[in-house]
Amino acid sequence: KLFFTDYGNAAKVERCDMDGMNRTWIVDSQIEQPTALALDLVNKYVYWLDIYLDSVEVVDYQGRKRHTIIKGRQVRHLCGLAVFENYLYTVNSDNLSILRINRYNGTDIQSLARLDNAKEIRIYQKRTQTAVRSHACEVDPYGMLGGCSHICLLSSNYKARTCRCRTGFILGSDGRSCK
């Protein structure tokens, strides 16, 4: 799945398949400017930062179990969001510090370090990487990903795929080759 935020005409948090199909709103009320998003892959939760409402909130992948982690002045200048173990990590763009916030109750806020001009944060840790299983976009005997001549996108599950073409090309009637 692909998770993303949108604060165009109607602010929302959405999800879709990797090929863009099955687009679903998971948060579409009491939300104004969701700018950062982080996923808890193990427990299947979506955290987001709303810079207009000065809040960090969470829902499950279906948009249920919504609650606010932290709200108010402490959230005012935050950008970027990452989750690891019991904490959320974010960047305070006002003083360029990296903050750690307890993700269960919004307490235990600590400034960990300062970075020049940081706007985003990512955490890479071996335990958070999902195991790779065989999937529909693996290289075929002819060296093409999923049998697609240009781009292979996973679809509704790891066994299904959709082929797409680069700009200027159109997908052939076989659903795999680009012309």
Write out the strand line-up for the largest beta sheet, numbering strands in chain order: 4-5-6-7
Rounded radius of gyration (Å): 19 Å
Which stretches are poorly predicted, pLDDT < 50 over at least 5 residues? none
Total number of β-strand segments? 13
Helix content: under 10%
Order of helices and strands: EEEEEEEEEEEEE
Question: Termini, distance in Å?
Answer: 28 Å
CATH topology of the largest domain, what is it called? Neuraminidase
Report the mean per-residue pLDDT as an integer.
Answer: 90
Structure, briefly:
This protein is mainly β and 179 residues long. Helices cover 0% and strands 39% of the residues.
Keywords:
mainly beta, Neuraminidase, Laminin, 2 domains, four-stranded antiparallel β-sheet, 13 strands, 0% helix, elongated
Protein model, in words:
This is LRP1B protein. It holds the Pfam family FXa_inhibition. The chain folds into two domains: 2-127, 6 Propeller (Neuraminidase); 131-178, Laminin (Ribbon). The mean pLDDT is 90. By secondary structure, the chain is mostly beta strands. It is 0% helix and 39% strand. Strands 4-5-6-7 form a four-stranded antiparallel β-sheet, with no helix packed on it. It has a four-stranded antiparallel β-sheet with strand order 8-9-10-11, with no helix packed on it. It has no helices and 13 strands. The protein is elongated. It has strands spanning 2-6, 12-16, 24-27, 34-40, 45-50, 55-60, 67-71, 78-84, 87-92, 97-102, 110-114, 151-154, 161-164.
